[in-house]
Amino acid sequence: MTPIVDLQNVTRTFSSKKALDSVSLTLQKGAVLGLVGENGSGKTTLIKHVLGLLKPDQGSVRVFGMDPVADPVPVLAQIGYLSEEDILPAWMRVRELQRYMQGFYPTWDQEYADQLVKEFGLDRDAHLLGLSKGQRARAGLMAALAYRPELLLLDEPSSGLDPIVRRDILGAIVRTIAEEGRTVLFSSHLLGEVDRVADRVAMIKNGAIVFCENLDDLKETHLELTLVFAQPRPVPPRFAGAIAAEGGGKEWSVVFKGSTSQAESAAQALDATVAEHRWASLDEIFVAYSRPTGGIE
Amino acid sequence: MTRSLPSRSIFLALLWPVWERNKTRYKIAACILLSLASAMYLPIQDIFKLSIASFYATLSVFLTFTVVGIVPFGISGQKSGQPGSTYSREIFALPVSTREFIFIPIIFGILGFIVVWMAFVMTTIVPLQLAFPIELPIIQAIAAVCLAHCLWWIATWKRRLVYLTAISALLIGFVQFELTFNLMFESLSPFRHVNAAMTDGLFPRPTEELALIIVAIASIFTAMAIAPLARHQSRLFGKERPQATYLRRSRTPSKPGLSKDLPKLESAFSTQSWFEGARHAVLMVPCATVLGSAALVAFSAFFDSIGPSTLTFTDSGPRYLLSPWMPLPIILLAALYFSALLGGTSLPAGALKGRNQIKGLGISPFEAIRPISSSNIVRARLLMAAKSSGITAIILAIGFLLYPIDAAGSQGASTLTYLAAHPSAQNLLLTLLLIASLGIALWSIQAGNVLLDLKGIKGYFAGIVCGTPILMFVMFQILEGTRYKLLFHNGVHNTGRLESPEVYARLIQELTVGALIYLGAKFILAMNLVNRIRYRNLLSNRSMLLFAAIWVATATLLIAGLYSLLPPNFVSASNLALIVMVILPVNRIFGQIICVDTNRHR
Questions:
Q1: pTM for the complete prediction?
Q2: How far is B240 from chain A (nearest CA, A)?
Q3: Which residue of chain A has the CA closest to B253?
Q4: Pairing between strand A151-155 and A79-83?
Q5: For residues B563 and B90, what is the distance between their CA atoms, to the nearest angstrom?
Q6: Angle, helices B327-343/B159-181, rounded to nearest 10 degrees
Q7: I need a surface site. Which of A48, A80, B171, B317 has the fewest CB within 10 A?
Q8: Cβ contacts of A70 on chain B, cutoff 8 Å
Q9: pLDDT tens digit sequence for B163-186
Q10: What is the pLDDT of residues A197-210, one digit of tens each?
C-alpha cells in the first residue's frame, strides 16, 4: 500500500545551517505520528516539505504517492493544515472563511462545519480580527477539518493557548481520528498532548530523526533508574544504554534504554546498585534525548 | 561602578526606535542629498544642473514619502494594540499621554518634510534661482500631515468623526488652493505676488505633441514608481486596511446566526477571485485612482494638444475653465490620491502584507496551501486588477466628460455637453477608445506591480526606487537635446518648446531604435519564460495559445483604433504598433506565474 507520506533522505540547508539532515519518515494510512523536538530542530521545516512549501535539496518527498511540488493541487486538496502561526486573513468573517474554503475543497461538509462552529461557540458573522487567539485557533481548526482531509498536518496547533481551547482542539482531533481514521502528523511541545493523541512518536534534533517508534514501545523500552554507587562519582556514569544522567556524589538518576535486567547488569559492572527503577515518562525521554550529550560526558 | 543610562525625553524616547529601525534608509537619503547638493554647486552649465535637478525631483518624491511617512506612521510595531488603531501594544504600554502620542508623531512628520524640502530648496531652487514660495509647501505639509494622521491613526474611531474629518480635509484643501491660486480670495492671498508665475508654472499649457506624449510617459513611470512605494508603506503600517476592518466590524450583528448565507462558490478560481476582490473591496477604487490620476493628467494634456485637429472644441483646442469651483474636483482627486497612498495598498491586486505573510514571500501561507494552481492565483489577481482598472477608467472618464471646458461659445460647459451638441461617430469612438486605453494602461501598470509583489523580494522595491530616478534622469538627458525642460522650469522661464525640426526628427528616430531594441529583448525574454513555464508544467498549451490570441487581438484593436482616430501624420502606423507592443504586458504576466510557483515551493 502506498504510504500517505514518504520522505526519503530529505536534506535541506538554509545558508550554512542544515535544517533537515537526511530525514526519512513514512506515514501509513490511519497513522497518528507525534513529532517532537526543540525549537528550531526542524519540525516546521519537515511539515512544510510535506505541504510542498519547501523543496528538498536532496532526497524525495511523496505525499499520496505524488510530489507536492510538481503536483500541488491534488496533494493540497487532501491536506488539512493548522499551524501555531495565525495565518487566517483578519478581515474575513467566519462565514466568509467557510465560503472561501468550500470553493477549494469539493469534499467540504457544510453541516459538519456548522456543527464545529456551534461546538466551538463561534459567531459566524464575527470578523477573525475581533476574535480572541483561542477563537481564531478554533476557526482555523474548523477550516482544516470541515472538508474531512485525508491527511491532517498540525504544527503545534495549541501552542500558547489556554487549557480550554487546547482541550477543544485536542478533542476535535481525537474525534476525527477515532471516527474517520484520518492520518495525522502532529508536532507539539506539549508532550501530554502527544501522549494522548499519537500512536507513534518521532523526535527530531538538529534536523535529524533521533527516533521514530511506536509510543507504547518507546515508553516500555526506557527506564528511569536511580543508581547508588559505592564511591562518589565526579562525572556522570557512562555505560551502554544510558541516555542521560543527572545527580552527583553517590546517587545518580539515569534514563536508560533497555530492559530491567540489562539495567541491573550494567549497574553491577559499574559497581553500583539500582535503588529504584520505573518506566520513564515521555517528558523524561524527550529531555534526555534533547541534551547535547545526554548529560553524559 | 556602573553608569546609569541617561534619561530621555518622551520626544526622544518615541523617536529613538524609529531612528533605529530606519537609520540605514535615512543615512542613504542624507548621502544622496549631500551628493546632489555638491553637484549643484559645481561650476557646470545650467543645463546639466537641470538634469541633476530632474533626477533629484523624482528622487525627492521617494525621499519625502520615506522621511515624512516613516516617522508619523511607522511608529507602529508589527501588531496593533487595538482594532481601529495601528499604534503598537508597546506604545500603549508606555507612560505617555494621548496628547503626546498624537502630536509628537505629527511634529516628526512636519520636521521630516521640512528637512527634505529645505534640501530640495538648497539643491535646486536656490542654485537655479527659481521664483518659488518656499514657505507654501511647508504650510501645506503641516495641514496634510495633521489630517492624514487624524484620518488614519486615531485610536477611537467614530463615524461622525470620519465625516467631520473628511469634510474638514476638503475644506482645508479648498481654502489652501484658493489662497494659493487666488481664485476667490485674491485679496487674502499671501502669495499673490507669485501667483501668476505659479499658475503658469504648475499648470502649463503645453502645445507640442511630442512633449505631451513625453509628459504622458513620464506620468505613467511616476505612477509605476508610486505604486510599489505605497505598498512599501503598507508594510510599514504592518496592517491591512487599518480602519476599514474596524468600521466593518462595527456593523456586525450582535447575535450569531442572523447572517444571510453567502452563495456557494463553484470553483477554486472563482473562490480565489472572490478572495482578491473581497479583501481589497474598500480601497479598490481610490487605490486604483492613484494610478489613474497621473494617467488622467497625461491623457487630458494629450487631448489638449490634439484638440485642434480632432475634437475641434475651439480654434486653440479645449481649455480648462479656471472657475472658482475648479479646485473641488482637484481636491477630491487629491484626497483620493492621498488616502490611497496612506491606505498602503495602491493596487487591488497587491499581495497581503504584514503578520500573515510568509517571511520573504509575496503570497500569504493561507493562499499558498490551497489546492489551486499558481497560474490560477495569477489569473485571479489579474482579473481583480482588470476590474479595478475598468472601474477607475470609467470613473476618470466620467470626470473627464464632466470637466468644465472653455469651448467656443459654451463657456462653462462640460466636455459631455459639448460632445452631445456635436455628435459624431468619431467623437463616440474617441471617447470609448479613451476609456479602453486608460483601462488597459492602468491594468498594464498593475500587471507590473503584481509581478513586483509576487516576487516577494525587497531588493526589487529598492531597485524600483533607485531605478526610476535613473530612468527619469536618462529621459531628461535625452530630452535635453530637444531643449525640453522640467515642467516647473518651463513655467517659470517659459523655455520648454521643441523648436528644432531636425532635433525632433532625430529624437523620433532614436526613440524608434530604442523601442525596437526593447521589443526584441522583451520577446526574447518572453520565449525564455514560456520555456520555463512549459518545463514546470504550469500552464497548458491551450491556455498559452488563448493568451497569445487575446494579446494579438488586443494589440491589433488598439493599433487600428488609435491609428484611425489620431490626426493624420501624427504618428506612423509602424511607430504606433511599436508603442502598443511595448506597453502591453507579456513578461510581467508570465513572470508572475514563475514567481508564484517559486515562492510557493522554495
A1: 0.66
A2: 8
A3: A125
A4: parallel
A5: 60
A6: 130
A7: B171
A8: 537
A9: 655 565 555 555 555 554 444 444
A10: 788 888 888 888 88
